[in-house]
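Lecture 7 notes: from sequence to structure.
We start with the chain below.
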Amino acid sequence: MELAEAKEIAYRCHRVLEPIHAMVYFAPEAEERFTEVGLRPGRMGYFASRSAPMGAVGPGPVAATFFNFNPELVARHIPRAWELADPREVVEARFAAAEAALRRLLGDELAESEVVTEAAELAREVADGCVPEGRPLYAAHADLDWPDEPLLVLWHAASLLREFRGDGHIAALVGAGLNGLTALVTHTATGKGFLEPAAKKSRGWSDEQWDAAADYLRTEGILDTDGKLTARGQEVREGVEDITNFSAASPWVRFGGDKADRLHTLARQLSRTAVANGAFPANVFGTGSEKAK
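Predicted structure tokens for the same chain:
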């Protein structure tokens, strides 16, 4: 398969695999498991669980690899989390939360079906084609042992592909001259995904910090006076997305189009079921259906 074709396939499959991974960030099962191992309720579980494969790192590496969160917000939870729970316990709790949440969202019958088994096998094959160079968050997650349960194999494979793509996305943003906050401001200005109030709240940025970043982007000709992307701003964002898609394509080249189409079909069924059963709050992602196309 040519790289250009693989780029399009990688994006299509990302759209249907992402909800399978990302539902864990909103699942009540996650906070239950994290508090059981000693973490505090609230944001601590997110920062600790996603960074735990890197070990007991400080707030700097977490803010750097997560990219668009306010470092001040990260520092409220890391490294305090490691005084309360061992990173290995947090990793185990995250897998347990993912399994419980997916079983609730899919139902036991679908969660134990051949659909999941086949999707898990295919997703793992793609994930095995990822390489760690220049992908620190992916590399940490890739060092974890593969689970045995097909449902968790699927979730872990989706997680690896998500972090692999995310690391490449951050490299594209940095290459475009954007930092974590300006990347977030320009993303909301595209009108796709995050709304500004939700972005500020979830990523921990104040109105003053946000406004200062927007003012800077106006001086750079990326935003207009109404806060919308200029022609240059649109070019920057489109370039970032194109580079992101190309950088995510390599595992799909050897995987092949037929198997990718099959994985897309299976993952779309699973994602649509999870979304229909309330995997994501509508006030964060709009209708939610956009995450399972």
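Points to note: Confidence is low (pLDDT under 50) at residues 285-293. Residues 3-174+241-281 form one domain.
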